Amino acid sequence: MVKIIFLHPDLGIGGAERLVLDAALAFKSKGHEVAFYTNHHDPTHCFAETRNGTFPVTVVGDWIPRSIFGRFKAACAYVRMVYAAAYLAWYVIPVEEPTLIFCDLISLCIPFLKMARGPFRIVFYCHHPDKLLTSEGGFLKKIYRAPLNWLEELTTARADKVLVNSKYTARVYQDAFQNIKDMPDICYPSINTDYFNTTVPKPLKEVVPVGLDKFIFLSINRYERKKNLQLALKALEYLKHALSESDWNRVHLIMAGGFDPINLENMEHYIELTDLVAELDIEDKVTFMKSPSDAEKVSLLYHCKALIYTPSNEHFGIVPLEAMYYKKPVIAVNSGGPTETIVNDVTGFLCEPTSESFGRAMCKLIWAPELVDKLGEAGRKRFETKFSFDAFTDQLDGILTRERQIISEVRAIEYEQRKKK
């Protein structure tokens, strides 16, 4: 057994949070001791594993502001993580003596973690280069971002091992960080299927006021503009004109996603989406859910007919895997990570990010119920073959084994050097 520390900015509800928790579960399943350190953790807005005692969670630096008058969010996030890293270096690492520190999202913490003495190794999981996630701005924005972007590349290079979530992200990583010569390892995320297998889906009426006689499309994504949730609503409106009246009457869209009440964009975008539903005159066809629980998400995946996944250039995408495990076809944008998880016309449909393209794919499923079952079965087989939790666990355990071997070699060299003295 070894000790592993996870350092993550905000243990809320999202794909990055699900990834680090699944990695922690994978390490724990191998008998290792795991602990989380974070800048923010709200027990009312988090995954169950950080709330029910599965892992100890310590919050560090939440008193540091997230922004300054609504601006400088990236700089504040960097400062919060640096503070947490310095805290770990001074007060935690010397006492706990971890073998591995697993961090993600903000690489600036890495050199501060390395201030601590000890033969630990640092693994950095790059979901996507942060420099590419920021929105474009004017001259002042470029000046503000320039040092942050430079620091991101400089500090990412300090990690002992860098992992990325897809071949797509590996290519983006190489283009973004051209001064880093070492190639990152690809570690496809997975999902903790034990929870799915042991959770009994609730009757749909107990989750949302929608009958099982409906052909239910499901969208699960955070309420953020970059997730392009409007595409799902516009595709639904396309169906109004493409389907017969009887088929249209059967259709319903459930839009569920992470919603943080202290996140201004979440609140603004939720209002934008409800306004769009009213504008498109499809209010009786859409049900919104904010931050469904894990048990509610299981029920939604179980009862829906297909998943609608709308982000473009998504780094990977966990939700399509969850749908594939539940034998549901996935309709997604033909870019980014979904092109590696979904096989077009085999496990779902890869579409252009237009309402017409998505709408046509949705029509195919409505008109051919047997196709829903066929694509769903193929999706489950693909998940088991390439993205199972066992494969994910074995890959992480292999990385840990190699890092431990490096630690042993370093210790042996240090011992020989002391003998010579």
From TrEMBL:
Keywords: Endoplasmic reticulum, Glycosyltransferase, Membrane, Transferase, Transmembrane, Transmembrane helix
Domain Glycosyltransferase subfamily 4-like N-terminal: from-to ranges: 13-193
GO molecular function, one term: GDP-Man:Man(2)GlcNAc(2)-PP-Dol alpha-1,6-mannosyltransferase activity
E.C. number(s) listed in UniProt: 2.4.1.132, 2.4.1.257
Reactions catalysed, as given in the entry: a beta-D-Man-(1->4)-beta-D-GlcNAc-(1->4)-alpha-D-GlcNAc-diphospho-di-trans,poly-cis-dolichol + GDP-alpha-D-mannose = an alpha-D-Man-(1->3)-beta-D-Man-(1->4)-beta-D-GlcNAc-(1->4)-alpha-D-GlcNAc-diphospho-di-trans,poly-cis-dolichol + GDP + H(+); an alpha-D-Man-(1->3)-beta-D-Man-(1->4)-beta-D-GlcNAc-(1->4)-alpha-D-GlcNAc-diphospho-di-trans,poly-cis-dolichol + GDP-alpha-D-mannose = an alpha-D-Man-(1->3)-[alpha-D-Man-(1->6)]-beta-D-Man-(1->4)-beta-D-GlcNAc-(1->4)-alpha-D-GlcNAc-diphospho-di-trans,poly-cis-dolichol + GDP + H(+)
Subcellular location: Endoplasmic reticulum membrane
Domain Glycosyl transferase family: 211-382
Tagged with keyword Protein biosynthesis: no
Membrane topology type: Single-pass membrane protein
UniProt KW Ribonucleoprotein keyword: no
Free-text function comment from the UniProt entry: Mannosylates Man(2)GlcNAc(2)-dolichol diphosphate and Man(1)GlcNAc(2)-dolichol diphosphate to form Man(3)GlcNAc(2)-dolichol diphosphate.
Protein name stated in the entry: Alpha-1,3/1,6-mannosyltransferase ALG2
The organism of origin for this protein: Papilio xuthus
Gene assigned in the entry: LOC106116765
